[in-house]
């Protein structure tokens, strides 16, 4: 069956611009997570969705970061006024019983 | 506070050898311990996972050993192959953190032919 998909695969943006990253989870998975992977910080949790609600946003680095999920499916991570330190790979994972399955990620480069 | 400590940072093994990666955790409430394999340019892929009610789990050439009292778990790759060359991450979840994964820093494994 289809796995987790993310788009775009690569995004280059100028400092100060807004970006939107999309995640399509595995069909039927109600739990969805966003993580960030960078050289200095490893894999970090950003936000957790259960259905369309986000009971844990504790990993979002600043108020420039927001995320939403609609229809219990697609999720969008938005970064406003991007900064160079936002450059990283943004990973989405959807959860079955306990296992989390990751998408291929979006590589964000802020110039 | 680093909740999961993974070692070594890098590991070089000859083809056919055994690769061993270790992780130690702090919080005894964790109850799910997966290992992920990541190739360059790809997302992490779930390799194998264990719950604390068993001390060992084996899937093919991959084995997790779990020591609850020491709060440690390890990944053993038997008969290592060049195709196993990748970055491996341990992770923990459970307790108050529901399914949220906290990852180790990763181990870069290189298997020489």
How many H/I helical runs of chain A? 0
Percent range of helical residues of chain A = under 10%
Architecture of chain B, according to CATH?
A: Sandwich
Q: Provide the succession of SSEs of chain A.
A: EEEEEEEEEEE
Radius of gyration of chain B: 13 Å
* Major sheet details of chain A: 7 strands, mixed
* Poorly predicted tracts of residues of chain A: none
**Share in β-strands of chain B:** over 45%
Q: Quaternary arrangement of the chains shown?
A: heterodimer
Number of beta-strand segments of chain B: 11
Shape of chain A: globular
Q: What's the architecture of the domain at 24-99 in chain A, going by CATH?
A: Sandwich
Structural notes for this entry:
The complex is a heterodimer of chains A (111) and B (113). By secondary structure, chain A is mainly beta. Chain A has a domain at 24-99: Immunoglobulins (Immunoglobulin-like), CATH 2.60.40.10. Chain A has no helices and eleven strands. Chain A has strands spanning 5-7, 10-13, 19-24, 31-38, 42-50, 53-56, 65-69, 75-79, 88-95, 100-102, 106-110. In chain A, the strands form two sheets. In chain A, strands 2, 4, 5, 6, 9, 10 and 11 form a seven-stranded mixed beta sheet that branches. Chain A has a four-stranded antiparallel beta sheet with strand order 1-3-8-7, with no helix packed on it. In chain A, strand 9 and strand 10 (100-102) form a beta hairpin. Chain B has 113 residues and is mostly beta strands. Chain B has one domain: Immunoglobulins (Immunoglobulin-like). Chain B has no helices and eleven strands. In chain B, the strands form two sheets. In chain B, strands 2, 4, 5, 9, 10 and 11 form a six-stranded mixed beta sheet that branches. A five-stranded antiparallel beta sheet of chain B has the order 1-3-8-7-6, with no helix packed on it. The A-B interface holds A 4, 31, 33, 35, 42-43, 45, 48, 56, 91, 93, 95, 98-105 and B 32, 34, 36, 41-46, 49, 89, 98-106.
């Amino acid at each position: 069956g289809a796995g987790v998909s993310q788009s775009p695969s690569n995004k280059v943006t100028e400092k100060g611009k807004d970006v939107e990253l999309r995640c399509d989870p595995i069909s039927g998975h109600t739990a969805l997570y966003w993580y960030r992977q960078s050289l200095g910080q490893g894999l970090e949790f950003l936000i957790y969705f259960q259905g369309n609600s986000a009971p844990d946003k504790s990993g979002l680095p600043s108020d420039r970061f927001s995320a939403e999920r609609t229809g219990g499916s697609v999720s969008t991570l938005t970064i406003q006024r991007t900064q160079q330190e936002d450059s990283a790979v943004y990973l989405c994972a959807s959860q079955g019983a306990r296992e989390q399955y990751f998408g291929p990620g979006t590589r964000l480069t802020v110039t | 506070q680093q909740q999961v400590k993974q070692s070594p940072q890098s590991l070089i093994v000859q083809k056919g050898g055994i690769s061993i990666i270790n992780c130690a955790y702090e919080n005894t409430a964790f109850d799910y311990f997966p290992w992920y394999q990541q190739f360059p340019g790809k997302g992490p892929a779930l390799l194998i996972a264990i719950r604390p009610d068993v001390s060992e789990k084996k899937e093919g050439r991959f084995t997790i050993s779990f020591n609850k009292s020491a709060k440690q778990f390890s990944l053993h790759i038997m008969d290592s192959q060049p195709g196993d060359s990748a970055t491996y991450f341990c992770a923990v979840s459970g307790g108050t953190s529901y399914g949220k994964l906290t990852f180790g820093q990763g181990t870069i494994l290189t298997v020489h032919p």
